[in-house]
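In the design runs reported in the main text, the only information available to the sequence generator was the tokenized backbone. The following block is the verbatim input for one such run; it is reproduced so that readers can re-run the procedure and compare outputs position by position.
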């Protein structure tokens, strides 16, 4: 009988940019109103990238928080999967930028572009890699700007 490998989420991390864009500010840029946006979405403000921030920066900040909680370092990661629709560059993948910024030299890295469901797809792919013995530890990052 073969040994069954299980995967699980050992830690999570979250980061949002400091810069805020309110509906009132948005009214000055596009033809909309605070009332229109709030009524339809409930959104009053959103966080946006600052002039010196990138999608990979958000991912790195989130990853560092999760890695600290999990008690692991970059050397422990075998795969980085970044779910993004607004990556830093088309090539190399944003996951590669995250890998470089973390100082990770051991893992393979790639992006998944599946809009809102991308993070769930990323978790599914990581689960498959772990269950099939491709890797032991995968970092899944959802990051959009």
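Verbatim output:
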């Amino acid at each position: 009988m073969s040994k069954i490998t299980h995967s699980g989420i050992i830690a999570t991390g979250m980061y949002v940019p400091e810069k805020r864009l309110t509906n009132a500010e948005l009214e000055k840029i596009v033809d909309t109103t605070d009332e229109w946006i709030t009524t339809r979405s409930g959104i009053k403000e959103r966080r946006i990238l600052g002039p010196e921030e990138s999608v990979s920066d958000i991912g790195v900040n989130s990853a560092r928080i999760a890695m600290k909680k999990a008690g692991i370092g970059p050397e422990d990661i075998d795969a980085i999967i970044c779910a993004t629709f607004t990556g830093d560059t088309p090539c190399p993948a944003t996951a590669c930028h995250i890998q470089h910024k973390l100082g990770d030299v051991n893992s393979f890295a790639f992006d998944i572009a599946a809009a809102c469901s991308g993070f769930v797809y990323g978790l599914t792919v990581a689960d498959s890699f772990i269950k099939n013995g491709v890797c032991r530890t995968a970092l899944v990052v959802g990051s959009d700007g």
